[in-house]
Hints:
By secondary structure, the protein is α/β, with parallel strands linked by helices. It has helices at about 5-15, 25-40, 45-60, 70-85, 110-125, 140-155, 165-180, 195-210, 225-240, 255-265, 285-290, 300-310, 310-320, 330-340, 345-350, 355, 370-375, 380-385, 390-400, 405-425; strands spanning about 100-105, 130-135, 155-160, 185-190, 215-220, 240-245, 270, 280. Strands 3-2-4-1-5-6-7-8 form an 8-stranded mixed β-sheet, sandwiched between helices. The protein is built from 20 helices and 8 strands. Helix 3 crosses helix 4, helix 4 (about 70-85) packs across helix 11 (about 285-290) and helix 9 (about 225-240) packs parallel to helix 10. Helices cover about 55% and strands about 10% of the residues. It has 3 domains: about 5-85, Up-down Bundle (Four Helix Bundle (Hemerythrin (Met), subunit A)); about 100-295, 3-Layer(aba) Sandwich (Rossmann fold), CATH 3.40.50.300; about 305-440, 434 Repressor (Amino-terminal Domain) (Orthogonal Bundle).
Amino acid sequence: MFDSLSLKLEKAFQTLKGQGRITEINVASTIKEIRKALIDADVNYKVAKEVTDEIKTKAMGMNVLTAISPGQLLTKVTNDELTQLMGGQGEEIKVEGNPAVILIAGLQGSGKTTFSGKLANYLKRQGRQVLLTACDIYRPAAIDQLKVLGEQVGVEVYAEPENKDAVKIAKAAIEHAKKNNHRVVIVDTAGRLAVDEEMMNEIAKLKETLKPSETLFVVDSMTGQDAVNTAKAFNDRLNFDGVVLTKLDGDTRGGAALSIRRVVEKPIKFISSGEKMEAIDRFYPDRMAGRILGMGDVVSLVEKAQQTFDEDEARRLNAKMRKNQFDFTDFLSQLEQVKKMGNMKDMLSMIPGMGKAMKNVDFDENAFKPVEAIIKSMTVKERSNPEILNSSRKSRLAKGSGTSIQQVNQLIKQFEDMRKMMKTMNKMGGAKRALGAMNPFGR
């Protein structure tokens, strides 16, 4: 995400390396590179010029402290300006009413239906009773897709496949929600390949009738400046409350994220990447600015870990580790928890300084599958007692998992090495430090 922009901005700051102070000449050269980087990232030219002019004005008015280089100072000023450009601070989603209604709008292919499922999962994890409503009455299989997503996250889906009146379906869904104690109704609406009058009339009528507490416009961030123009067209007609940027794991140049707040004057509330239902985050401008400038985003990384890992499960595993009882079932459980955190490359890029290091590193998200297949091919007894895995059992595991005996042996050896390390740490009175050994990425 934003790899190209990050590298170009880093290159721009390099022009100040070794400079003892900020001058009109060296700042002008750096500002020119920053503006070029923003425009290359598909940021609106007017917005790019306004931001860089502001950076230049502030930088020239500041004195460079002895402990701070001109490059560091300009990075700080740029960070502050990017943060303000994207909204200054994160804004909460409004969930008000009985039930609260959240209307989802956007073009076809922007990821509305997938986001609806992710939002349902997000709100459910907060302890809310959620109802998904299928009001996309035009796209083939839209209702089926929403039902599949609802089943994945354990949320009921209200649908009337034969009804071709989206407003009537939504009103019936709200009545259903009231009768069945659903506190939030998420309405997934139809999209089109382009903005048209029929589409606008339908979504406007839905908003007028339902009076939602929140209307979210979902936009494909890979479409760059086109996304900003579409958002403006929708907002002029719909006056939505917030923006959702999807597909941030793709080949996005970042222009939509950087421009949309300034052009539309509505906050970005969520960002989304990938197909996993957990891959949704509240949008924080300051954190995103830090990631763009290669400073990482440790706060979001910790929050993801807190959301994913269960405290009771962690205590149970800690107790088993202290007794040297950690087995393959526990290992598989931890592997599944780590996978829920999302794209591994994105996770690691949140660590300060890792963004650049990860640029040319490809993470195969399927790399865990052979490990999972081998463990799932074991009996309960074998998972608890790996020492009984003799040649014939290993041969059976290799066949059952579609792997080789060498892969089975490698997994068993790594697991035994990990258990030995845990045992050593226990003797040293540091069982908790052994938690790091559960990292399945290590050798």
